[in-house]
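Moderator note: this is an archived Q&A kept for reference. The question asked for a predicted structure of one protein chain; the sequence and the answer are reproduced below.
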Amino acid sequence: MKDMSEAERDARHADKMRKKKAARDKIIATKTIEKGLLIVHPGKGKGKSTAAFGLVLRMLGHGHRVAVVQFVKGAWETGERAALETFGDRVSIQTMGEGFTWETQDRQRDLAAARGAWERAKALIAEGEHRLVLLDELNIVLRYDYLPVDEVVAFLRDRKPDHIHVVVTGRNAPDGLIEAADLVTSMEMVKHPFRSGVKAQEGIEF
């Protein structure tokens, strides 16, 4: 390699990339299924909802309608909500949470809020008018047993229309949901500024 000229290196690289492209094209040609996906973003790291809203934006960029049901963050004024409202009726945003459970300190109220948000989510999914439905922080609700996991998993697995993508976020996703999902990406925390005394900041956390 050290004795090769730049032209020889370029030719070697081009040949290697041609072979890699041919192999890749052969693999891609076998992928023929198109379907609505169940996508889960769990994990203790930051970025679960951020990644999900990236998918929402991508769908909007392709001209599709999207819906968002927020199970926990409804009490917050978030940048993503303000941004999505500029898309008009192409986006349905249901902010049905009342904050984290330690903020309400009322289990029955939390149970009622979770049930109301889930019923709305089921209706949006069943209607089939939104290509993607984001169920933001649903995993938190499931973690506290505010909704039966089996009920949620059964609906998303068996009753979701074939063309609809559903994204579920929140740490501690139940095993049944992960098993039913088509795509799972866990966010791992390596460092977080909160541990160094940095507060939640506009445009980063909300």
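Archived answer notes: The chain has two domains: 1-32, 36-196.
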